[in-house]
Amino acid sequence: MQQARPTALLSPLQSVVHLLHRAGQRADSLFADRVDDALTPRQFAVLQAVAEADGLSQTGIMAATGIDRSSTADLVRRLVSHGWLQRRRTKRDARLYAVRLTPAGRRIWSEAAPALRVTEEALLSPLTSSERVAFIKALAVIASIG
User: For residues 89 and 106, what is the distance between their CA atoms, to the nearest angstrom?
Assistant: First the structure.
């Protein structure tokens, strides 16, 4: 039995790929409007992962956030250069870095957490409660985390 296509695309501008990209751009813009110090949502995700597990390795950050290895390394490097993270070799394995929030990193993380909630509310505001649940579940499946 042949599966029916969910929708016929009228234009490449209506493609899932394009719409997800535009939604991501909108999310980035809304978040940027609400935070200081040019913190991006992906940088916030790294700070969140480290805040939840102090001393996490870069591999652990990658696993927690779903961000690829090279991007994780670049994000950690940038956050270290901002003074928001510190990275030290572990005593157990000198090849690994333990990553921790600095006091400045904890401050920016705690200031950005409410901004993230407000951003998510703004993004989801056109949806009903049941649509929000379905949308978040669908995104988690698409992102392979649900």
Answer: 21
Listed residue (51, 47, 52, 18) closest to 31, CA to CA: 47
- Identity of the amino acid at 117: R
Closest CA to 106 of 87, 88, 85, 89: 85
Which domains does the chain show, CATH number per domain?
36-142 (1.10.10.10)
Provide block-wise average pLDDT over 10 residues at a time, the chain (146 residues): 54 84 94 86 96 93 94 96 92 84 96 95 96 94 77
Cα–Cα dist 107/109, whole Å = 5
What gap in Å lies between CA 75 and CA 78, rounded to an integer? Answer: 5
**Is the pTM higher than 0.70?**
yes
SS3 85: strand
